[in-house]
Structures are given as C-alpha cells and as structure tokens.
Specification:
Structural class: alpha+beta
Strand order of the largest sheet: 3-2-1-4-5
Shape: elongated
Distance between the termini: 54 Å
Bound molecules: zinc ion
Radius of gyration: 20 Å
Helix content: 25-40%
C-alpha cells in the first residue's frame, strides 16, 4: 500500500539523477522536509517539468512506498522568475535554501518558516528592496522562528534601556558599562547602532507581509547585515559556501 501526501511545497534542492529523473528536497506545508524522486521530470514534455525546479513553489501529490517518496503530480504555483535577473539575488536565494534545509526537519511542518521563505524569495525576485536587507531580515527572523530569538529589550547586564553593544555568545544587547568588562575579558561583543537595533526589533515583530518594508542608512544597514550574518553563523555553528559566493558577487 502506498500513502498519498498532498501539500504545497518549496523546492530547496534539485539533483539530476539518471534517466532524466530529479531527486528533490521539498519544504512542504504538511510534512516538513521531504525527499522525493520526480521520475522523468527532466524529459521534454514531462508533466512534472514545471514545479520541480529549484525554488519552484507548487502543489504536490507525493506517493510514499516503503519509505521512498515519488512525485505523482505537481501544479506549479510560483516560479520566482525575477531571481534569474540578478546573480546576487540568486546567490542569496541559494543561501536561504541551505539555511532552510538546516533548520527544517522531516515530518515536522512549520508553516511560519515556509511563509517566511516564500516572502523572502518574493522580495528577492521583485528586486524592489536591497538584497542585503532582505537577507538580514530573513536571517534574523529565521533564527527567531528556530528558537534563537536574541534578547534586545533591555541591557542583559543591568536592565537599562541603553543598548549599544551586541554579544554574540549571549545573543543579547548590552549597555556601554556592562559591555566594557565583557569585551576586556575577550567576549565577542560588537557595536550595535541605534537604527540597526530598531530594525532588529522590527524584524522580530513585524507582520510577515511587511517584514521587508523598512529602510536604513548605509552605516546602520552595514551594521545590521554584519550582525545578522554573524548571528546565523554563531547559532548554526557552520559556514555556507553559497554565502561565500554571494559575497564574492557583491564585492
Ligand atoms: Zn547594562
């Protein structure tokens, strides 16, 4: 007996395999990460051709048999065409896909993470917002959704409202007085600009459709991007080759 799963899903990985098949990793709404073979998807005229490419969002019907899944049918809902107009956006999207793969689990659906992923890809594809800010907002919100929300309301040392440093190991903001001894002791503590702090708090609380609707001056934007990227690295405990590619394209 085969089990049927019907769910919308976002293709995070697409690996060509023999005989024009594709091995897909899909972030599904109902079953979290799911790996499935799309038989014949790379053949001309295949009904599976649309919806099974990297970054396609589609309504899938999967059939499971003895622990193996195959794509039975698919209806593409969104292809994020605009991603192909900018190599930087495409590289950022590849990085997003790797991060989503790392924070998501098989069999555990997370509607909020999928919604964030779709909104972030949409913002990149549209190209109306700077890709650096889209990336920073995606990184921070994804970390918060994954259980790593930083403490920004007060100084973590004394409770004061002055917050001008961010500690990576503590995932917390600090005032000048509390930060200095920690910095002297060798803690990785970084300046936190007021506008970057406001942006971080906005990113953590904004309604999803408005998540990317903020702007920042150059220095604050640089500070935000630096902190959010480092924060991901701290929490995930690894580096990403797609991120190196993204930076090589932006320089
Ligand atoms: Zn303090």
């Amino acid at each position: 007996m085969s089990r049927k799963i019907v769910s919308p899903g976002l293709v995070l990985r697409e690996i060509p395999v023999k005989e024009k098949n594709s091995l897909l990793t899909v972030l599904t709404a109902t079953d979290g990460l799911l790996t499935a073979t799309a038989y014949g998807a790379r053949g001309s005229g295949s009904s599976l051709a649309s919806g099974t490419k990297l970054f396609h969002y589609a309504e899938f019907v999967f059939l499971e048999s003895r622990g193996h899944y195959k794509v039975d049918s698919v209806q593409c809902l969104e292809q994020f065409f605009g991603l192909s107009h900018s190599v930087e956006s495409l590289a950022a999207a590849s990085y997003f896909a790797q991060l989503l793969y790392d924070v998501s689990l098989a069999g555990e659906s997370d509607a909020a993470v999928l919604r964030l992923a779709l909104n972030a890809l949409y913002a990149l594809a549209q190209g109306k917002r700077p890709h650096g800010l889209v990336k920073a907002a995606f990184e921070l919100r994804l970390m918060a959704l994954s259980g790593f929300e930083p403490e920004l309301e007060f100084c973590a040392g004394c409770g004061s409202l002055e917050r001008v440093f961010f500690s990576m190991p503590d995932a917390s903001a600090y005032c000048q007085n509390c930060a200095i001894p920690r910095k002297s002791a060798g803690d990785r503590i970084y300046p936190l600009y007021p506008a970057a702090l406001d942006a971080m708090q906005y990113i953590l609380s904004a309604d999803m459709p408005k998540l990317f609707s903020f702007s920042l001056g150059n220095e604050a934007a640089e500070n935000l991007c630096f902190l959010c990227e480092l924060y991901v690295r701290e929490q995930m405990g690894r580096s990403y080759d797609s991120l190196e590619i993204y930076h090589s394209l932006c320089n």
